[in-house]
Amino acid sequence: MSPYTEEQMILLAGASISAQDFAPAAVKAWDARVAAAAAAEAADAARRAADAQAVEAEEADTLASKEREAREADEAREELRKAQADAAKSKVGRCRLTL
User: Fold this and answer.
1) What is the pTM (predicted TM-score) of this model?
2) What does the pLDDT look like over 72-81, one tens digit per residue?
3) What range does the domain containing 19 cover?
């Protein structure tokens, strides 16, 4: 089965003066078609790689953001613990003064 449509074959044959001209033209057209397919595949592979890299970068940003939020929450909890401890010490000190 020919890789060309009937219209493409007619155009190649019409552009050829003889059968000797047709064969090289057909080979050249085939090579161009193969090269175009390879270029399209390479572009698609590059696009997929760029998409994968973008997803990976987005996941890394999300992870960094979650880690930063967790660290800030831990720091806030530690500050709260210190404030509660200070308040408890202060309350104990006031109770001793009133006794």
Assistant:
1) 0.53
2) 999 999 999 9
3) 6-98
